[in-house]
Design goal:
- The chain is α+β, with helices and mostly antiparallel strands and about 170 residues long.
- It is about 40% helix and about 20% strand.
- Strand 3 and strand 4 form a beta hairpin.
- It is globular, with a radius of gyration of 16 Å.
Length: about 170
């Protein structure tokens, strides 16, 4: 499936509704609620079995997903601020809470559950500036340099940083 061309038009989310999805351990969508389909513009058939990156906006720094996957792969939950891309090219900002799903018998990670909700304009403005800087660094110097910048940015805010809390720390400041 070809990614849509981004357009500079934001989808306004209902603050009372959650976008919900579940994936297998590799990130392929196994469940999506009606609101996810409504906002993203994809049908259930188009989403199920696809990598969750189907909605990844090109404005998102790779380092955010690198840290996200490192964290959830260790069995830790994480929160993230994400800009997603709808099927028609519009975008929507969300605050996502990722939770690990484990096999109750073996304890093995079998997938992930994510609930997403709208986020304040103020946080979006701050995050946009940070993500733009991270993307610039990634393009010129790579993801590792972007990660170093992000850690330094958070330390300047006076926080000791564990990857599981990076997005939560960013959200806390703003």
């Amino acid at each position: 499936m070809q990614k849509p061309t981004p357009v500079n038009e934001e989808i306004k989310l209902d603050p009372k509704r959650y976008i919900v999805s579940e994936t297998d351990e590799k990130g392929k969508i196994t469940y999506c609620n009606d609101y996810f389909m409504e906002v993203s513009g994809y049908s259930k058939e188009e989403l199920i079995g696809q990598p969750h990156s189907i909605v990844r906006h090109p404005d998102m720094p790779k380092v955010v997903f690198k840290l996200l996957w490192e964290t959830i792969s260790q069995g830790k939950n994480i929160n993230a601020v994400v800009k997603n891309l709808a099927k028609d090219g519009r975008y929507y900002w969300i605050f996502t809470e990722f939770e690990i799903r484990k096999d109750t018998d073996t304890g093995k990670v079998i997938g992930y559950h994510a609930s997403r909700k709208t986020i304040s304009k103020h946080v979006i403005e701050i995050i946009t500036d940070l993500y733009t800087k991270l993307l610039e660094i990634e393009k010129s110097s790579g993801v590792e340099a972007s990660q170093k910048y992000l850690i330094s940015f958070l330390k300047e805010k006076g926080e000791s940083v564990e990857f599981a809390n990076i997005m939560e720390e960013i959200h806390k400041f703003y």
